[in-house]
Amino acid sequence: MKEKHVLIIQIAIVILMLIALNPGNPYSYYIMLRFASFGAFGYLAYLFGKRKKHIWLSIFIILAIRFNPFMPFYSSRSTWTFFNIVAAIITGISIFITRRWDIE
After folding, report:
1. How far apart are CA 84 and CA 15, in angstroms?
2. CA separation (Å) from 24 to 36, 62, 72, 77?
3. Number of C-alpha atoms within 13 angstroms, CB side, residue 39?
4. Longest dimension (CA), the chain
5. Inter-residue contact 76 to 12 (CB < 8 Å)
6. CA 10 to chain centre
7. Among 6, 71, 84, 94, which residue is least crowded by beta carbons within 10 Å?
8. How far is CA 14 from the centre of its chain?
9. What distance in Å separates the CA atoms of residue 41 and residue 74, rounded to the nearest whole number?
10. 3-state DSSP helix/strand/coil percent for the chain, to nearest 5?
11. pLDDT value at position 10?
């Protein structure tokens, strides 16, 4: 992928999701995480949609909905821990998918 900003966004989201696993974070961190991840997942969904990668488009739409800050889903800490790990893994995998776009 020629746009380095996409790689930076993906790495930042992975790092933010991993930092979210720290139980000592203030509540404001999780609010910021919702806004950052909502925007990033929405943008990644857009990029995958442009490439006609419908499965990845769907995955990132679901993540954007789950992390949306405007109509939040309230869950237990253990549930959020699970979703943070899943989101970090999915975003990490997407880094390798988007890197292959340079070859195509």
Report:
1. 10
2. 19, 27, 21, 12
3. 9
4. 43
5. no
6. 7
7. 71
8. 7
9. 19
10. 75, 0, 25
11. 93
At residue 36, the pLDDT reads: 96
| SS3 category, 25 | coil
Q: How far apart are CA 81 and CA 88, in angstroms?
A: 11
Identity of the residue numbered 92? G
pLDDT at 1 over 70: no
CA-based nearest residue to 89, from 9, 13, 24: 13
Q: Read off φ and ψ for residue 36, nearest 5 degrees.
A: -65, -45
- The pLDDT assigned to 91 comes to 95
Q: What is the pTM of this model?
A: 0.88
Tokens of 33: 């995480």
* Nearest alpha-carbon partner for 31 in 61, 68, 63: 68
